[in-house]
Amino acid sequence: MTITSETSERGLEDPNAHLEMALIDEFLRALGLDRQKLHDLPKNQARRLRREASAYATARLTEVESRAHFVHEIHGAARRV
Asked: What pTM value is reported for the model?
């Protein structure tokens, strides 16, 4: 793969994808699991845990985005004063 095609592929990637995966891993670690261990669980249990991990990551990403927006507002308001 060339540098150009790697850059093009990265350009299409969700900027929060790595953070989302890290948050999913964090959720699973708190349960003493990792993504590989999910394959060893019964399908319905693994599916439920994936959904819960995804919901956890979504909530945390929303929190991060909200905080970033709030900080941006504070700094923007400070410049206007």
From this structure: 0.70
